[in-house]
Amino acid sequence: MMSVRSNPPPAAPPPQEDAWISSHQRLLPHWHSVSLSHQHPTLPISISRVNQFDAARLDIEMSAMLKEQLVNVFSLMKPGMLFQYEPELDAFLEFLIWRFSIWVDKPTPGIALMNLRYRDERAMALRGNVRTGLEGPGLTVAQKMWYCIAAVGGQYIWARLQSFSAFRRWGDSEQRPLARRVWGLMQRIEGLYKAASFGNLLIFLFTGRYRNLIERALRARLVYASPNMNRAVSFEYMNRQLVWNEFSEMLLLLLPLLNSSTVKSFLHPFSKDKSSSSKEDDSICPICRTSPTLAYLALPCQHRYCYYCLRTRCAAVPSFRCSRCNEPVVAMQQHGNVVEHKPHSQ
């Protein structure tokens, strides 16, 4: 039996020397798409609007506390002296806060308490993709200077201009036409600024970026300083304040309804100092603690009182009891005269 021998398949021809170049060019677009899909995309971060508003409020409170302490230093000087320099005082305090916070790349006290910091949003547009969305450099020197000029210098100049124009009465019709025109221009500028601030507020509530016009013009955005820090709020102090307020309101409501003599008579049987009260001088009125000018006796116990003290207590409390012996007072008698019956309340 004859065996059939199979021929081996023909060998593939060797590739050309420049074949790898064409394969590289063909696969290069696919490689780029795969590499881009594995990179970290830009993360849309959302900064709490409440935190940003709270930071601004805390900064205002801090400035008010510093102003109060500074005013207390000059409390012994001439009254009203600091009133005429109030814009300069506010500008000085705002400059101090800016100098020791924003100028040295540190957050203001309110911003630090809310775990926030300023970031230059213009640099983030050039950086491209980021990892957490919180990266980015702080404010540049130019941004810091413009922030000081607008927030400190601008507010001071406007406050001083308003006080000067109000003192000179530029808005009166008897003033010169130039003064009235300047006053009208100031009013229009203030109206435009308030309208722009209101528009910026609406945009901020929608996007969560730039609380005021200065931050929007400088593109200084507030972001979280630490991504792992939670906003922990302690309500212990608030709870204590609420309890104390409710307790004080309850006392203010109940104290006018209580009669001191009734309370004393109620607590008299439980008093430990009964011997001293029994030996108390009977020549003074137990209500006003003075010698009676018009002495009356409470019946039947016959303890001495001032007429007006005993009369008003008996009229106010129908079941009035003697402040000395806790006996019910049924009538009153002038010392050495006839009995006068206790008045009945209607």
From TrEMBL:
Residues annotated as transmembrane: none
Main localization category: membrane
Designated name of the protein: RING-type E3 ubiquitin transferase (cysteine targeting)
Domain RING-type per the UniProt entry, residue ranges: 285-326
Pfam short name (any one): Pex2_Pex12
GO biological process: protein import into peroxisome matrix
Pathway note: Protein modification; protein ubiquitination
InterPro entries xref list: PEX2/10 (IPR025654), Pex_N (IPR006845), RING-HC_PEX2 (IPR045859), Znf_RING (IPR001841), Znf_RING/FYVE/PHD (IPR013083), Znf_RING_CS (IPR017907)
E.C. no: 2.3.2.36
Membrane topology: Multi-pass membrane protein
Top-level division of the source organism's lineage: Eukaryota
Keywords on record: Membrane, Metal-binding, Peroxisome, Protein transport, Transferase, Transmembrane, Transmembrane helix, Transport, Ubl conjugation pathway, Zinc, Zinc-finger
Single Gene Ontology MF annotation: ubiquitin protein ligase activity
Source species: Hibiscus trionum
Gene3D superfamilies per record: Zinc/RING finger domain, C3HC4 (zinc finger)
